[in-house]
Automatic annotation (TrEMBL):
InterPro entries: Gfo/Idh/MocA-like_OxRdtase_N, Gfo/Idh/MocA_oxidrdct_glycsds, GFO_IDH_MocA-like_dom, NAD(P)-bd_dom_sf
Record-listed NAD(+) binding positions: F14, M15, D36, E95, K96, N124, T161, W163, Y293
A Pfam family per the record: GFO_IDH_MocA
Location of the GFO/IDH/MocA-like oxidoreductase domain: 140-251
Name of the molecule in the record: Putative NAD dependent dehydrogenase
Gene field: gtmC
Alphabetical keyword list: Nucleotide-binding, Oxidoreductase
Length: 341
């Protein structure tokens, strides 16, 4: 019998639970540890999946069977945790944002390369089946002609966890949270060209916290294409995530949450439906799979066990971090930021 891949999940909250659910469904994986400073939170998740619980990463890393660690903690903690995991010679998947600075992103990438371990970053939507199909269509240049623009709109009604609204723990607001996905989708849909310049503006609407609720980023790519990223935590009515790629001869659009094939109506509320939850609804189904988490985590496991190359690499994470850093500088200074300048 082949020994299964021992995994530890650091962070027993919502995203830790998503990865635990996905990974335990893979017969090649053995979820051995849940690490959380709050033992009660860690115990709740560990009990669900038959894992052990600890409040220290050191204890999980002392288990030689743990070869892969998932980091699903507040953004400001990602760099030190990932650095410790890599230094211990273990493979790691860090939820988005990978880290909060380009320098730290490059350091982690270099350390992972030196240690010969996998460094993966959370970017589930570039693995989402609907967007993968849109990407395939957008790559057909005979059909689209010269692709000159791509637009990603990602809007929600805001996070329900306090740490997201604190710069000290999250690093930023909607740009850090949703902008990671928007920038990555923009680059990917165009074939990952170099970025020449970034212009952005942000706005804080909520009195809670000290970070932005809205952001718009304009990306000028080296091949002449323009990317637009429109992100917001101030959108009533539920999550929206759309991608549009436009060329001289055609276009491709994809809406992650529309066209799901299920409709419902209620004058009150359904017990197990996310917002919006009144009137006519299009309830999600298999949202973890449709959002790309299954495909993302499976590819990381393939990379760890079989050495298969990943479609989205640490270099991509560095590019996203660098773009978001430029966007924040642009918004603060009110000017265009030239990349590599």
């Amino acid at each position: 019998m082949v020994e299964r891949l021992g995994v530890a999940v650091v962070g027993g909250g919502f995203m830790g639970g998503v990865h635990a659910e996905v990974l335990t469904a893979d017969p090649r994986v053995d979820l051995r540890w849940v690490v959380d400073r709050d033992e009660r939170v860690g115990t709740d998740l560990a009990t669900r999946f038959g894992a052990r619980v600890t409040t220290t990463l050191d204890e999980a890393l002392a288990d030689d069977t743990v070869r892969f660690v998932v980091v699903a903690t507040p953004a400001a903690t990602h760099e030190p945790i990932a650095a410790q995991v890599i230094a211990a010679g273990r493979n790691v998947l860090v939820e988005k944002p990978l880290v909060l600075s380009t320098g730290h992103a490059r350091q982690l990438a270099a350390a992972a390369h030196e240690r010969g371990v996998v460094l993966a970053h959370g970017g589930n939507f570039v693995y989402a089946p609907k967007f993968v199909r849109a990407h395939e269509l957008a790559a057909d240049r005979e059909a689209l002609g010269t692709v000159h623009s791509v637009r990603v709109a990602f809007r929600t009604s805001g996070p329900d966890t306090d740490w997201f609204r604190s710069k000290a723990t999250a690093g930023g607001g909607a740009l850090t949270d949703l902008g990671w996905h928007a920038v990555e989708l923009c680059r990917w849909m165009l074939g990952k060209p170099a970025i020449r310049a970034v212009t952005a503006c942000t706005r804080q609407l909520s009195a809670a916290g000290d970070v932005e609720d809205q952001g718009v980023v304009l990306i000028e790519f080296a091949d002449g294409a323009i990317g637009q990223c429109d992100v917001s935590w101030a959108c009533p009515g539920g999550e929206q995530l759309t991608v549009e790629v436009i060329g001289t001869e055609g276009l491709v659009t994809a809406d992650l949450w529309q066209g799901m094939g299920v409709e419902a109506y209620t004058n009150t509320k359904f017990g197990a439906v996310w917002e919006p939850n009144q009137g006519w609804l299009r309830p999600e189904w298999e949202w973890i799979r449709n959002s790309g988490y299954v495909h993302q985590d499976r590819q990381v496991v393939d990379a760890v066990l079989d050495g298969r190359p990943m479609t989205h690499t640490p270099d991509d994470a560095v590019a996203v971090v660098e773009t978001l850093e430029a966007a924040y500088r642009s918004a603060a200074d009110g000017r265009k930021v030239e990349m590599n300048a």
